[in-house]
């Protein structure tokens, strides 16, 4: 824990991954664990971790990267955080993110911009960019992120670490500050596939406080890593639509090299098709913004966080608290979300998106019937220059093409580092996509390819 805190002190001035560091609390907890001695029932005994600031931490300020939650201190831990603590992990602090997890570069945080440890002129990806940067910079051994449309996998890919979005329902969302409730999942960002398996084993599992959390038993993820026979007998599907226009040559080359390795290890590669991929971005942004506008209605200046001072009446309290508390991107999404849900537009936008979502899911299931897992790039590009997407949010939305359809389908996805792009010299991630609750298989394939 001390070594990680020292590393943090040395790297934070350049990368700004952390919103809050609790050095005293972490060292006290580490001493407590030392005094008690190693405990085999604690799978993460003494492991220093960071957590995205969208997850509630008891007694530790939690802002979701927003001014409207300035100074908000939860009175309970998120389920996943509680599980980490009980497993013996040492929580070092809270990692930066795009405000309410809305973004792909961690540039929408109300507090600071995080930089990519590989090249500080570049974004770390987002929205879990602080988590990815803290892992990549060696500030911790694992971090928890959240993924609504790619926010674990894309920053993992931009920062060269491993990131897993579990199946919807595998990890409880209790204590997660909601963005799009039907899409959000919590998952690990780590330095290796093995570490990812060990953290997932701790945070997965049933929690009656999240009605969408699945009761089925948790697989033995660590056991899934020892395949022995490479990838023999495994069919990997390549969705044609994920290798088309828009994919940069350097990302394609790095993914092709990894796929060639998979073939050498005995995997059979087959082409599959996901014809509605084209509609995924529009579908996702309608559904995510609709859910966001509803979820964010609770921030009224009364119940949590920041309240506008010197107001004359209740209406002014709402208006000023929300106008001053939310950033530009969040306001844009609340307005668009309220619009697609409003009477007269609901059928044309929201209902239609929900129908297309079903088609996208069915296509995934059909593709996964033909193979054991799908392989695709995580992002069509490597990390971009800080500020280069500031003027055009649509440009950033388009970059999510390969990640967000998975959230619409509720399926698990693993982002695996597969080397550096030949042009940018920045990390590239390969995405492994599996059937619902197929995390063990994805981790096994990822470990073999690592
Ligand atoms: N970039 C996507 C968005 O802005 C995904 C964010 C996420 O997964 N939290 O909605």
From TrEMBL:
Family annotation (Gene3D superfamilies): Amidase signature (AS) domain
Keywords: ATP-binding, Ligase, Nucleotide-binding, Protein biosynthesis, Transferase
Any Gene Ontology biological process: translation
Coiled-coil region: none
InterPro entries, A to Z: Amidase, Amidase_CS, Amidase_dom, AS_sf, GatA
Location of the Amidase domain: 1-443
Catalyzed chemical reaction(s): L-glutamyl-tRNA(Gln) + L-glutamine + ATP + H2O = L-glutaminyl-tRNA(Gln) + L-glutamate + ADP + phosphate + H(+)
GO molecular function: ATP binding; glutaminyl-tRNA synthase (glutamine-hydrolyzing) activity; transferase activity
PROSITE patterns, per database record: AMIDASES (PS00571)
A GO CC term attached to the entry: glutamyl-tRNA(Gln) amidotransferase complex
Location of the active site: 52, 127, 151
Entry's EC annotation: 6.3.5.7
Described purpose of this protein according to its UniProt entry: Allows the formation of correctly charged Gln-tRNA(Gln) through the transamidation of misacylated Glu-tRNA(Gln) in organisms which lack glutaminyl-tRNA synthetase. The reaction takes place in the presence of glutamine and ATP through an activated gamma-phospho-Glu-tRNA(Gln).
Family: Belongs to the amidase family. GatA subfamily.
Quaternary structure (record): Heterotrimer of A, B and C subunits.
Protein name: Glutamyl-tRNA(Gln) amidotransferase subunit A
Organism for this UniProt entry: Desulfovibrio porci
């Amino acid at each position: 824990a001390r070594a990680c805190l020292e590393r943090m002190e040395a790297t934070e001035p350049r990368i700004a991954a952390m919103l809050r560091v609790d050095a005293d609390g972490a060292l006290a907890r580490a001493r407590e664990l030392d005094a008690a001695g190693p405990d085999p029932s604690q799978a993460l005994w003494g492991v220093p971790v960071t957590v995205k600031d969208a997850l509630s931490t008891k007694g530790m300020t939690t802002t979701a990267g927003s001014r409207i939650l300035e100074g908000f201190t939860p009175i309970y831990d998120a389920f996943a955080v509680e599980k980490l603590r009980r497993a013996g992990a040492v929580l070092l602090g809270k990692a930066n993110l795009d405000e309410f997890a809305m973004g792909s570069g961690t540039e929408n945080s109300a507090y600071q911009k995080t930089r990519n440890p590989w090249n500080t002129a570049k974004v770390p990806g987002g929205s879990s960019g602080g988590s990815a940067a803290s892992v990549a910079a060696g500030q911790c051994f694992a971090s928890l992120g959240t993924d609504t449309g790619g926010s674990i996998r894309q920053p993992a890919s931009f920062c060269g670490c491993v990131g897993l979005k579990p199946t919807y329902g595998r990890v409880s969302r209790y204590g997660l500050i909601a963005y799009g409730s039907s899409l959000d999942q919590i998952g690990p960002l780590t330095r290796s596939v093995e570490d990812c398996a060990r953290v997932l084993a701790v945070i997965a599992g049933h929690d009656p406080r999240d009605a969408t959390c699945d009761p089925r038993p948790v697989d033995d993820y660590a056991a899934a890593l020892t395949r022995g026979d490479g990838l023999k007998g495994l069919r990997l599907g390549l969705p044609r639509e994920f290798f088309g226009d828009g994919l940069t040559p350097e990302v394609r080359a790095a993914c092709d090299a990894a796929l060639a390795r998979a073939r050498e290890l005995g995997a059979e590669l087959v082409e599959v098709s996901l014809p509605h991929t084209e509609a995924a971005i529009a579908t996702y942004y309608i559904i995510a913004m609709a859910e966001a506008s509803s979820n964010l209605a609770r921030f009224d200046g009364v119940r949590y966080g920041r309240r506008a001072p010197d107001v004359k009446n209740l209406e002014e309290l709402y208006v000023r608290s929300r106008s001053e508390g939310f950033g530009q991107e969040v306001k844009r999404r609340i307005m668009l979300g309220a619009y697609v849900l409003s009477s007269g537009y609901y059928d044309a936008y929201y209902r239609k998106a929900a129908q297309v979502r079903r088609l996208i899911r069915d296509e995934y299931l059909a593709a996964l019937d033909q193979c054991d897992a799908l392989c695709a790039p995580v992002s069509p590009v490597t990390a971009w220059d800080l500020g280069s997407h500031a003027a055009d949010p649509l440009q950033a939305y388009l970059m999510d093409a390969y990640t967000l359809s998975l959230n619409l389908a509720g399926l698990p996805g693993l982002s695996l580092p597969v080397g550096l792009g030949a042009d940018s010299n920045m990390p590239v991630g390969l995405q492994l996509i599996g059937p619902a609750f197929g995390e063990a298989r994805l981790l096994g394939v990822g470990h073999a390819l690592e």
